[in-house]
Amino acid sequence: MISVAEALEHLFALVRPLETETVPLREAAGRVLARDVAATRTQPPFDASSMDGYALRSAEVEPDAMFKLVGEAAAGHAFHGTVGPGQCVRIFTGAPVPAGLDHVVIQEDVTRRGDLITLNGDMDGKDNIRPAGGDFSAGDVMDAPRRLSPTDIALLAAMNVPEVPVTRRPVVAVMATGDELVMPGETPGPDQIIASNSFGLAAMLEAEGAEARMIPIARDTTASLTTAFGLAAGADLIVTIGGASVGDHDLVAPVADTLGMQQSFYKVAMRPGKPLMAGRLRDAAMIGLPGNPVSAMVCGKIFVTPVVRALLGLRAEPARTLQAQLAAPLTPNGPREHYMRAVLAEDGLRAFDNQDSSLLGILSRANALIVRPPHDAGRETGETVSYLPL
Ligand SMILES: Nc1nc2c(c(=O)[nH]1)N[C@H]1C(S)=C(S)[C@@H](COP(=O)(O)OP(=O)(O)OC[C@H]3O[C@@H](n4cnc5c(N)ncnc54)[C@H](O)[C@@H]3O)O[C@H]1N2
Ligand code: MOO
Domain MoaB/Mog, which positions (predicted)? Predict the structure, then answer.
């Protein structure tokens, strides 16, 4: 059995970043910027006032100095006249500072009578001017790859980039398999259950920026699985769920083999998720997840999500772990890397007693997976351990 890190390397070797497409700025949030984008303008494009007040010459600023008002500059309305000695211009936040002037006194520091202002005695000395290019200059770049956040969108707008090059969304076929499964909303037979993890995985993939294509549930027959693989054609990634173990009805690998899958690995030293499988099937990467609901969701987090990120052109790297103290002890770990469902509260991390890989209720209450290396010794309360936030 290979380690989780080795399995991830094998998975990254199965995929390449997808092509670039251009989308309107309004549709770019959450997408991955595919190449560096340069500002087409300088911001601010002129020296701008940062306050409402009076623009004048700094050399003339002294307590009780008087100035004559000769005009007004507002945002979007520059003052184009000339300003002589002892003169000032009424100015508002965002307005261009008139030529020859280099200081804005805020209106709170001024006494005004008609067209005359007098500076107060205790001014703070700031010039209240935002220099041209103080934010960015034409040609400055936003570097790729990156997932575009709302603040990135604001910056791109300011850079006057109305069309954004992004990586195409990966199409991921999600294929639940099993005679026991029916869809949510249907009435299951006495020996049936509702397909669940396929919906969780589709949600996880979409949150990551992929387009999830739900394949109708495949039955545990060669014919049904073959049909389902046919419906997955054209996807960038095929994720099967269930039928991955060693039972007589675990047919996913044999059917995929028949269809020409080149297997990369089978079985990973982890818990849950041991019977994980991966390879290439036609033009797609394929990941075969174990059917147990928690196993499938944990493998989604550990493997599928990083692969989707790699397809999007983001750095191929494992899900990032954080560190926290334990609020309760842990018994020694076995030979497989263990992802323990846990709650992180103010006093630290506490693993659930029951770590059975079928329990979605516990997974839903968990907000962290404690990551235990193989053969990790028992851990005491207060010790620092790694975890993945959920
Ligand atoms: N003799 C052995 N038996 C098993 C082994 C083993 O090493 N030797 N491994 C166990 C482990 S670990 C896991 S994990 C499971 C994985 O089995 P499969 O991937 O073949 O999954 P299934 O048998 O199809 O299903 C397992 C379990 O999960 C339920 N399931 C499946 N798909 C869904 C779905 N979409 N939504 C909700 N629930 C689903 C299914 O009904 C089963 O209860 O094998 C162990 N056995
Ligand atoms: O790997 Mo299984 O996922 O332990 O239940």
Answer: 173-310
At the fourth CATH level, the homologous superfamily of domain 322-389 is: MoeA, C-terminal, domain IV (2.40.340.10)
**Nearest alpha-carbon partner for 112 in 68, 143, 47:** 68
- Rounded to the nearest integer, the mean pLDDT of the chain is 97
Separation of 264 CA from ligand 1 center, angstroms? 21
Q: What is the pTM of this model?
A: 0.93
The tens digit of pLDDT for each residue in 121-179 reads 887 789 999 999 999 999 999 999 999 999 999 999 999 999 999 999 999 999 999 99
Q: Which fold has domain 4-17+169-311?
A: Molybdenum Cofactor Biosythetic Enzyme; Chain A (3.40.980)
Q: Which residues of 91-126 are buried (b: 16+ CB within 10 A; e: fewer)?
A: bbebbbbbeebebbbbbebbeeeeeebebeeebeee
**CA of 250, closest atom in ligand 1:** 20
**Ligand 2 pocket by C-beta < 6 Å: which residues?**
271-274, 290, 292, 295, 357
Q: Of the ligands numbered here, which is closest to the C-alpha atom of 294?
A: 2
Which protein residue has the closest C-alpha to ligand 2 atom 4? 272
Q: Which ligand is nearest to the CA of 293?
A: 1
